[in-house]
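> tool_call: predict_assembly(chains=two)
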Amino acid sequence: EDQVTQSPEALRLQEGESSSLNCSYTVSGLRGLFWYRQDPGKGPEFLFTLYSAGEEKEKERLKATLTKKESFLHITAPKPEDSATYLCAVQARASKIIFGSGTRLSIRP
Amino acid sequence: SQTIHQWPATLVQPVGSPLSLECTVEGTSNPNLYWYRQAAGRGLQLLFYSVGIGQISSEVPQNLSASRPQDRQFILSSKKLLLSDSGFYLCAWNGGYEQYFGPGTRLTVT
């Protein structure tokens, strides 16, 4: 069965304290892995798509990496405005995308 | 550029009342369209998706239904709401692999 698991469920960091969020997946025929940011009460905002193992994408303080079994979202020197829920999703067969339950990231000033 | 709209933004409805949520997409043609529900602190649950006018696929059995009367319009409906229908409803579209989401509708069934 296709599955996406994100860890940790919640993460509290001090401003400037770098860390990583994990997304583990088991799917047959990965077509793409996606990262989203979701602020409270809003729709998810697309961040990155990764297609194959070894691929990396960067945007400001965020860097996403992909292996055959998991993806990491590295956040370097975070700021309070980086606080949000980060969602991982994978697309396997056909048009179905499977979402993880997210990691709630909180950055203290 | 493409934009996606949802309305209403918030809705409070009594149990047993009907529901109609609307989603429209601008700036693209023949998009795949999706309805998701997100419970508090939970991931996104795919409810329906559509690859074209009048073509609806249902992912989970429930008292909800969806329709696509026009290319860029997607509607989520119910004849009688249940308490368990409360949640955050999101519409999304994709032209490639990634999906882009609307602002969402917060539905509270009382």
